[in-house]
């Protein structure tokens, strides 16, 4: 807390008017700290693949110059590191764009079923690589208020995570239903008629103590595993921001050894818009 005293009438002390202003700077300090942490984390995430690229390049120009087998192997690793950096830069750009647009609410009526179908079709090859079957348990869905690009990004991230963290040979299920009683799966009240969409995987699940922090930038349950799977640690932070922009809600449930369910609640088109916050 910072207190500032301003004397409005300097000439006569006796009759002076004193204005005392109190500023709570804890929020500002926390925001500054988060910003500094974010820049430090982002720099670290970029520097790791960059150092590896430089190291391999130097080896290729020196000791491994005439070793064809080593060259092919190193080029493969360098390619993976460059892809990782490129993915990280595009996630960082997405986050910064989303933050700038945070206060603009989408207004279009979107057929979210078509959005989900497009994503699932586009991910069939990736699902096949892990022998995962994607099931959809919905048919006709009511329109939601949204933005097609943002909704695509939300569900692309959630379904990609389900394919990444789901067990090989397992199933990923997408369920969708209009919420009739105004209550979420975890018992929260929705202040507007909503459509719920769950992405459910059969993975290892997430320990309970991690759930509240999953949507923080760069927060990972197992950082080494996330990096190995090509993750940037920004996917769920992006999802949270975009869901907030839709005045929707994100709920995460998970059971160790069984899997996880990420549910997004979106306002139905034609409903009164209120505001709810993602976790
Ligand atoms: P990442 O790029 O690491 O996947 P995300 O922001 O998408 O980053 O997710 C943050 C972390 O949450 C992941 O590193 C992982 O530990 C955990 N996570 C996300 N989705 C799942 C899931 N479906 N099953 C298990 N863990 C998950």
TrEMBL record:
Keywords: ATP-binding, Cell membrane, Kinase, Membrane, Nucleotide-binding, Phosphoprotein, Transferase, Transmembrane, Transmembrane helix, Two-component regulatory system. It comes from the Bacteria. It is an enzyme of class 2 (transferase). GO terms for cellular component: plasma membrane. Residues 41-270 form the Histidine kinase domain. It is found in: Cell membrane. GO terms for molecular function: ATP binding; phosphoprotein phosphatase activity; phosphorelay sensor kinase activity. GO terms for biological process: cellular response to phosphate starvation. Coiled coil: none annotated. Its EC number is 2.7.13.3. It catalyses: ATP + protein L-histidine = ADP + protein N-phospho-L-histidine. This is histidine kinase. It comes from Limibacillus halophilus. The chain holds residues 209 to 487 of 487 of the full protein.
């Amino acid at each position: 807390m910072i207190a500032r005293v301003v004397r409005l009438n300097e000439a006569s002390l006796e009759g002076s008017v004193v204005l005392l202003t109190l500023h709570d700077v804890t929020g500002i300090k926390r925001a500054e700290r988060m910003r500094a942490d974010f820049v430090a984390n982002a720099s670290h995430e970029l520097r790791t693949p960059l150092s590896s690229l430089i190291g391999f390049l130097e080896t290729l120009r020196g000791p491994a110059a005439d070793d064809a087998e080593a060259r092919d192997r190193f080029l493969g690793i360098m390619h993976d590191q460059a892809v990782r950096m490129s993915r990280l830069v595009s996630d960082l750009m997405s986050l910064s764009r989303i933050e700038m647009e945070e206060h603009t609410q989408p207004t279009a009526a979107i057929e979210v079923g078509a959005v989900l179908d497009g994503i699932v079709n586009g991910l069939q090859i990736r699902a096949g690589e892990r022998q995962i079957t994607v099931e959809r348990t919905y048919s006709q869905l009511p329109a939601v208020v949204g933005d097609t690009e943002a909704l695509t990004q939300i569900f692309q991230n959630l379904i990609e995570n389900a394919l990444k963290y789901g067990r090989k040979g397992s199933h990923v299920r997408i369920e969708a239903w209009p919420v009739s009683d105004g209550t979420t799966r975890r018992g929260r009240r929705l202040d507007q008629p909503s459509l719920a969409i769950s992405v459910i995987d059969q993975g290892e699940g997430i320990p309970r103590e991690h759930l509240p922090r999953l949507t923080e930038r760069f927060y990972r349950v197992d950082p080494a595993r996330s990096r190995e799977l090509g993750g940037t640690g920004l996917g769920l932070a992006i999802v949270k921001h975009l869901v907030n922009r839709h005045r929707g809600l994100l709920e995460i449930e998970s059971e160790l050894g069984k899997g996880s369910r990420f549910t997004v609640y979106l306002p139905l088109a034609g409903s009164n818009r209120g505001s709810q916050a993602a976790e």
